[in-house]
Amino acid sequence: MSGELTVNKDDTEIPCLLVPLLGTTLLLPTVTVAEMAPMRPVQSVANAPQWMLGKYEWRNSYVPVIVFEAINGGKLTPLNPQGRMAVLNNTGVDSRLPFLAIPTQGIPRMVRIAENDIVENAQAYKKEFDEMPVKVGLEEMVIPNVTALEKAYIATGLLD
Which residues, in sequence order, are CB contacts of 44 under 8 Å at separation 6+? Predict the structure, then answer.
């Protein structure tokens, strides 16, 4: 990603993270993210779907790792040692799943974006786990449907 996002200072600004993935960027409000943790090995899980890499040890617990690109119809991407693990807060679907993690393909960027500067990208194809494809200035990104990600993980039957 190059260049800075332009933000209308008169509007309400939302602190966000731009999370680089393979072929797309996720736009996440910072309240969605518990931590951008360092990349470490992931513990494999038996009978996990292809889009689930395993579990990531974080703060004395294990968090399921979902490869967003793979669950959303793309390829399973390997962990990038220079990336981070985006540990996301629970949306309230199930208290037994307090967090889930998405591996990034680079270092996320923190930005403040005016609410009015986030425009739905009507030309982009909305995939199953996209809340909404958007444009901010000239940059295209995706707001992920974290609730749908949680439900997909719960449906695997792997929830402890």
Answer: 53, 54
Handedness of CA 151, 156, 157, 158 (dihedral sign): negative
CATH of domain 13-155: 2.40.50.180
0.85 cut: is pTM over it?
A: yes
68, 130 Cβ separation under 8 angstroms: no
Domains of the chain, by residue range, sit at 13-155
| Contact residues for 23 (Cβ-Cβ < 8 A; gap 6+) | 69, 74
- Average pLDDT estimate for 58-69: 97
Q: Look at 70 and 9; give whichever has higher pLDDT.
A: 70
**What confidence category does residue 124 fall into, taking pLDDT thresholds of 50, 70 and 90?**
very high
Rounded CA-CA distance 67/12 in Å is 32
